[in-house]
Write a structure and sequence with these properties.
single chain, 773 residues, mainly beta, 6-stranded mixed sheet, 5-stranded mixed sheet, 60 strands, 1% helix
């Protein structure tokens, strides 16, 4: 079970251009609409829309939680591809802070570090950038806010940052001087060293005197650059005792991804640096946290950078007054089969600290607690007589019931799990009873933490409401049954019967790690099919009750991934273009056997006609294909003018045979929106649509006969989410600059039952639902 952040977006994102500059560009007003407008002309924004998430609650990796140390209840969370959030104590929920990031700045939705100013709590900083390799074409940035994230300014850096790279759970890499808050430090990856700002994050310069930019890479042989990047400088910690208000802190500790030299120190406010003598070697320090009251610097270490790998680790304590290092690991080296990462000290009760075994995947993660500065430890769970365990906690996931992942494991495993990838762990500095920690799927927390020390059990519940971090691959809104079906990365997807409630369970029987595509039979919406990624078969499933219950199908040999799938209009057959095979396949019934289709290349995107059950369509590399015999044979139809490069998606209009809309392409090549009314024999490009990446249909506007169209596109020179009520003759932008969500190019669909309602897929901000206000 991994977060959606575990899988790079890859080639799909590489087609997009990232432009440096301000976070939110000046507002652009689309051209006003008039009856004589050319096809595809952008209309002025006419309808006010209300946007909110279709609730899932969580769904991805939370590598960092940061409490402000001056103001009670001010806390932030960072995600690897889904932006940053601020805690709202009154609503016990998280508030998204980076929804204004536009299409060109999708990379800044990956947050590698976050810092809250303890001098001026209104100020917060984000180090943003998703990949350090070619998948993210733009450089990283430091975003700064003086209103707690309500608005932002940005400074683009001369290098990339990796919010979704290996090592992203280490940190925090970004830190504000607690005495002179105009001074910030940023640890950089890729050999770029340590950087500093002296003007509250407006400008940055490299700290030339810092001696070590890091040496550790996960896999030097990885040619993609994802696993072969130098993980760099990974945390910064100030000793606030060595400064005074308005004067820069003199002693600063910095962690480096170097197993032989992992901790450095400056005692002259960053002018000079030296390796801390006597430090442990053989491990990477994931975190370094200072207990200023007792004068201890604590390190959690691992033999790997995380967030998935790590077979060994240790916990160390450094006495700042004497220079003494002491191994205070909760377990012996011989018994340790994981790395340590999560690390927090209780600011209100000095001497109390907690650490996590972040890479203890089996039977569960482990959390350790000490009340005597690491001299002795207790554990969240212990083995009694194998396979039985005793627990210092209870766990209630009734508010997010899908966190059981639909499993029923045998002891010593339990469901729900305490967690995995637990690199974020923080005790509230104002409340010793409250603790939060991040996992690969959620944020858990407790408000009776001190019961741990008195023989009681702490009560762990999800503290994740408002934080929506799913990566969405496909969406479908049937005319009857559940209003929405979703295909999600790493948690499979859901049948959403109530858009404002957390689904009870994800798709099961079988459960996919990631669902890549789904479809329903247009005239028989109880018939649903989904395909996805799994370590082994099955990778296809069917439902005859609108997705409430599922059964697995067989699959052709060689399948390695889900690809795309389509259901015949009446549910009598299916076509499937899985990954790993040399063909597209068709079947009648529910996939008991598959036959290779002829005339269509492997890997084509496939869809069905929504009226004629014998007609299916495919598209690949600029050529459109049609089958009239249930997918047995395909014939190449149109190719002139269609996009030959870049991703493309198309859909057939419900209720009308042969009415097809195709969106896609790439910058520098064919890119836009095309329409066919003759089953793909010919296509007409909409002249006013410069770029389009998705297309979907919803209920027709009052008085209109043609369904409403929805797209994520650039129309009239403006990027946004658009709606057309006149078959594409004119378009209205329905989102605004405050609601852009970075990349929205995977899927979009209107609701056939509610005019104006649209569902938008994001890459890390979940499913957005728009309604007419």
């Amino acid at each position: 079970m991994r977060s959606k952040g575990s899988r790079p977006v890859g080639a799909l994102m590489a087609a997009l251009a990232l432009v440096g500059g301000l976070l939110t560009a000046a507002a652009v007003s689309p051209a006003a609409a008039h009856p004589e407008s050319a096809p595809g002309r952008a209309a002025a924004q006419a309808d006010a829309y209300t946007w909110k998430n279709v609730r899932v609650d969580g769904g991805g990796f939370v590598p960092g939680i940061v409490f402000n140390r001056k103001e009670r209840n001010l806390a932030y969370a960072r995600t690897d591809i889904g932006g940053a959030y601020r805690w709202d104590q009154s609503g016990k929920r998280w508030v998204a802070l980076l929804d204004s990031l536009d299409w060109d700045h999708w990379g800044w939705t990956g947050v590698v570090s976050l810092a809250s100013d303890s001098v001026d709590p209104d100020k917060v900083y984000v180090a943003a950038g998703t990949y350090t390799n070619s998948w993210d074409p733009g450089n990283g940035a430091v975003l700064r806010s003086s209103d707690r994230g309500a608005s932002w300014q940005s400074t683009t850096l001369p290098f990339k940052l990796g919010g979704n790279m290996p090592g992203r759970g280490m940190g925090e890499r970004l830190a504000v001087d607690p005495n002179r808050n105009s001074v910030l430090y940023l640890g950089a990856p890729s050999g770029n060293g340590l950087w500093r700002s002296t003007d509250s994050g407006v400008t940055w310069s490299k700290v030339a005197s810092f001696p070590n930019p890091g040496t550790y890479v996960q896999d030097p042989g990885d040619t993609s650059g994802y696993l072969s990047d130098n993980q760099g400088v990974v945390w910064v910690t100030f000793d606030e005792r060595t400064g005074s208000a308005g004067s820069a802190t003199k002693t600063v500790y910095v962690g480096v991804a170097d197993k032989d030299n992992t901790v450095y120190r400056s005692t002259d406010a960053g002018a000079t640096w030296s390796r801390v003598a006597g430090q442990p070697t053989g491990y990477l320090s994931h975190k370094g946290v200072l207990d200023a009251k007792n004068g201890y610097l604590y390190l959690t270490t691992s033999d790997k950078g995380g967030p998935y790998d790590g077979e060994k680790g240790q916990v160390w304590r450094y006495t700042t007054a004497t220079g003494e290092w002491k191994n205070i690991s909760p377990m012996t080296d011989a018994d340790t089969y994981f790395g340590y990462s999560g690390l927090t000290v209780d600011r209100a009760t000095p001497g109390t600290l907690m650490v996590t075994g972040y890479s203890s995947w089996w039977p569960d993660t482990q959390i350790f607690r000490s009340t005597d500065s690491g001299a002795t430890w207790t554990r969240a769970w212990d083995f009694t007589s194998y396979p039985n365990r005793s627990f210092r906690y209870t766990q209630d996931v009734s508010s997010v019931p899908w966190l059981t992942f639909g499993t029923n494991p045998s002891p010593p495993e339990v469901t729900p799990k305490l967690g995995w990838m637990t690199e974020a762990l923080e005790i509230d500095p104002f409340d010793s009873s409250r603790m939060m920690y991040g996992t690969g799927a959620t944020i858990y927390g407790t408000e009776n933490l001190k019961s741990w020390d008195t023989g009681g059990k702490i009560a762990i519940t999800p503290m994740v409401r408002g934080l929506e971090e799913t990566a969405v691959n496909d969406l479908a809104s049937p005319p009857t049954g559940a209003p929405l079906l979703s295909a999600l990365g790493d948690i499979g997807g859901f049948r959403h019967t109530d858009l404002d409630a957390v689904p009870t369970t994800m798709y099961t029987s079988p459960t996919f790690t990631t669902t890549t595509s789904l479809d329903y039979a247009e005239t028989n919406p109880n018939t649903v099919v989904r395909v996805g990624n799994n370590d082994s078969a099955p990778r296809i499933a069917f439902s005859t009750d609108n997705g409430a219950n599922w059964f697995q199908g067989s699959e052709p040999s060689g399948v390695t991934g889900g690809g795309t799938v389509a259901a015949a209009a009446d549910g009598s057959g299916f076509i499937w273009a899985p990954e790993g095979t040399s063909a597209v396949y068709h079947t009648t019934g529910f996939g008991n056997s598959w036959s290779a289709s002829s005339g269509i290349p492997a890997g084509a995107v496939v869809e069905s006609d929504r009226k004629n059950p014998k007609k299916f369509y495919g598209f690949k590399a600029g050529t459109f294909y049609v089958s009239t015999d249930g997918g047995a044979t395909f014939t190449a139809r149109a190719s002139a003018g269609l996009p030959a490069d870049g991703p493309a998606r198309f859909k057939a209009l419900p209720g009308a045979e042969g009415d097809i809309w195709l969106a896609g392409g790439s910058t520098g090549g064919g890119y836009g929106l095309w329409h066919s009314t003759d089953s793909g024999a010919t296509f007409t490009k909409l002249s006013g649509v410069q770029q389009a990446d998705t297309i979907g249909f919803g209920k027709a506007a009052p008085g209109a006969s043609y369904p409403a169209l929805y797209t994520s596109a650039e129309i009239g020179g403006v990027r946004g989410i658009f709606r057309s009520t006149d078959a594409g003759a004119s378009w209205t932008r329905i989102n605004d600059n405050a609601h852009q969500w970075g990349w929205t190019g995977a899927s979009i669909t209107g609701d056939p039952r509610v005019y104006g309602r649209v569902y938008v897929a994001t890459n890390g901000r979940g499913i957005l639902r728009g309604d007419l206000s």
